[in-house]
Design goal:
The complex is a heterodimer of chains A (about 120) and B (about 110). Chain A has about 120 residues and is mostly beta strands. Chain A has strands at about 1-5, 10-15, 20-25, 30-40, 45-50, 55-60, 65-70, 75-80, 85-95, 105, 110-115. Classes of the chains: A mainly beta (about 120), B mainly beta (about 110).
Chain lengths: ~120, ~110
């Protein structure tokens, strides 16, 4: 079984500041990991995914995440926040040896960007 | 581009009505999912289907049923709508298998039951 914990349901940063959204996972088998973003009144869209090829993964809009097996973490970062980054972010995990199209999602983190 | 469409963006129904939410995807994906999203509770899986006529219960199936007669279409049915089913409903699809298959989401249906 897999599970995901997103630390902090709300994160607020100033424009231009570092964005750090935390995600810890639990999985009994090698995991696949994903970050999705949801803008108001829209569905989720993929930001980036961990494919086991490289531990540092780059995604769209300047976001990246690092897979740390020893810490069971997959934190999302962006060096400089932009107002357009304000959204809800979801971390998700799926199992590499089963139907990997079925994922378990975290509860989400709402990012606010202050001018 | 993968496209997942949902039949309505906003829906208002009365308590006790039968409600159908339709979802269509155009990428020949085997997996399809229905989630509900409520503030502070994230995404909760209601049902998913990994093939035509195949379905599995998710975490919160009570009060819901689903239908998948064609590969591209997955319907969520509320047999007798209740006010506690007021929520945002999201449909998604993905490939099936052991690859790194992300899910593709529709825009959501905001259902209000009065």
């Amino acid at each position: 079984a897999q599970s995901v914990t997103q630390l902090g349901s709300h994160v607020s940063v100033s424009e231009g500041a570092l964005v750090l959204l935390r995600c810890n996972y639990s999985s009994s088998v090698p995991p696949y990991l994903f970050w999705y973003v949801q803008y108001p009144n829209q569905g989720l869209q993929l930001l980036l995914k961990y494919t086991s090829a490289a531990t540092l993964v780059k995604g769209i809009n300047g976001f990246e995440a690092e897979f740390k097996k020893s810490e069971t973490s997959f934190h999302l970062t962006k060096p400089s926040a932009h107002m357009s980054d304000a959204a809800e972010y979801f971390c998700a995990v799926s199992a590499a040896n089963t139907n990997a199209g079925k994922s378990t999602f975290g509860d989400g983190t709402t990012l606010t960007v202050k001018p | 581009d993968v496209k997942v469409t949902q039949s309505s963006r906003y829906l208002v129904k009365r308590t006790g009505e039968k409600v159908f939410l339709e979802c269509v995807q155009d990428m020949d994906h085997e997996n399809m999912f229905w989630y509900r999203q409520d503030p502070g509770l994230g995404l909760r899986l209601i049902y998913f289907s990994y093939d035509v006529k195949m379905k599995e219960k998710g975490d919160i199936p009570e009060g819901y049923s689903v239908s998948r007669e064609k590969k591209e279409r997955f319907s969520l049915i509320l047999e007798s709508a209740s006010t506690n089913q007021t929520s945002m409903y999201l449909c998604a699809s993905s490939l099936v298998g052991t690859g790194t298959y992300e899910q593709y989401f529709g825009p959501g249906t905001r259902l209000t039951v009065t």
